[in-house]
Hints:
By secondary structure, this protein is an alpha+beta fold. It is built from 17 helices and 25 strands.
Amino acid sequence: MQKFVYSFIFLFLVTSLSAQNYSATLSNYEAYKAFRGKPLSDKFSNIESVKIVYDLKSKKMYYFNSTLISHHYDFVTNYLSYDQEVDVFNKENYSDTEKDRTYLLGNLNHIKGTEKWIFELAASDRMPIPLIEIFYNLILKSSFIGPDLKFYLNNLEKMEWFQQNKFKIPCVKSDYIFNDITYQEVVSGSTVGVLKQYKIKDLEKVQPNRDEIIILDGTPDILPDVRGIIVNELQTPLSHLVLLGKNRKIPIMAYTTVLKDNNIQKIISKKVELKIEIDTFYIKETTKKIVQKSISKKKLLVVDNSVTDLVDLNSIPKKGVNFIGSKAQNMAYLIAIAKEISFKTPEDAHAIPFYFYTQHIQKKSISSLINELLTNQHKDSTVWINHQLKKIRDAIKKEPIDPNLIEKLNETFKNAAFKNFRFRSSTNAEDLDDFNGAGLYDSKTGILGDSIKTFEKAIKQVWTSVWNEGSYTERELFGIDQQSIAMGVLVHRSFPDEIANGVIITQNIFRKNFPGITVNIQKGENSVVKPEKGEICEQFTAYYLPTQTKDEEFNVDYTSNSNLNNNEPLLSRKEMIRLNLVSQKIETQMNRYWKKNRLNPVDIEFKIVGENRDLYIKQVRPFNE
């Protein structure tokens, strides 16, 4: 009887909380669950959130239903009789003083499956420390959480205050959250397939079936042609796996404990349905039909071999994409844009046109191997294909390069201020609207006059990457005619002294219809798009709200800090403001050059170089969502 009474009281409490839209207290986790929703930003997976308002005038606390009521402004206007416009609301209630404020606004976040509770303000909130500490203590008094509650330092200003020991409340950075995240949506979506498990090393010899959803013990260099992918490593949002997965439009997720999850292990080799969402996933046996992918027609690429000389990218070549490739053509656009706004591009930028690659592979020792690959009946054998691709690469390296090309390069760069040059792929099958080709081709360094790192060796290594397993496979999946692939080479000085490198997407990829750029950056030469195991890069969104224009109103919202830089910011506030300005200008100008009828986001690669921390933009391409 007593158990029945307790159950009835518990049920009544949950029903009452669910029936109402707000409460002055949270007495237990069930009360929290009644109001929880997903955060407005998708910067973290596996997070649930309840929004909080404290009315400074009435001195009342409100935890409200964050699923039914999405924004703080909606709550105060509908429930607290606030009657000002949203611009006034934002200006007053995110200010750096208590004077004009009516409310304190925050979020109470919880990492699912843990005892980690995080009090967070909007990154644009300039709330002074005394008010932050008052707000924190009000949450302690009105909720069940107790000492597990921590304050999250999500912007540069709060991190600086923390470094200066100004806080009297427990504070945490992104590593506190990252260390307990086990699930991450990489590419959302749903699919049906046969669930199979492979080791990364198995993929060198085994080709998964097209009707499979595969589990891997790491991050693959090459994405197999499958229905979906589950990896056991968390990904950076702009990694090659993410970009290729989005381009491929297949569901991908990271789940760090997938190999130990008994429920998943029980359904290996069964037909399952997988649904991947930002904050959770669902996988279960199913009888649903596996829908076969339609095979697209072969896409013939344009190759113009009429240009037989090096192309100086200080002038924009007309229709250069047809004879030097998209990457080199885009570099010419960047150089032109850099004359209008202050940023640097790699010095001595030139392009080797398709002509020299085409001339090289037409040699019988190479062309016969390519023809054999493209016409042979063994095309379904991964082992045979990989062996044939290696034979093609070896043949490209073995045949001597046109000596005229090397003479042209030596003559062009003989008086250059630099001796080390980077040779980068610029094919007609990358950096396109419908095929980004992220990470498929190689870049190599050649040193002027060096007997080991020769220009010839670097060029050949770039050319051979046309026939890497990953690049060949990806083109096959997208129906690209392999006979029409051509490799130009973008050449410019190399960067041995980079302080940091990164990628910008000119869009807030974590919050739809909200301003901002998304930045991933890492210390030194360490890769952002293909990090070593255990490396975490710095990641943030940066923005001005629509009514903001002053630099002091610039907002930076951190998702993570670099663990190679002691979790301290890699960029100053001034550098972030400049990065935002430059990237927005590049986005506008590139869309004009590409003759787009609307403003599409772009993917920008940049470096911070030398003692003066110069900003170099080294690449731009369309961002394929």
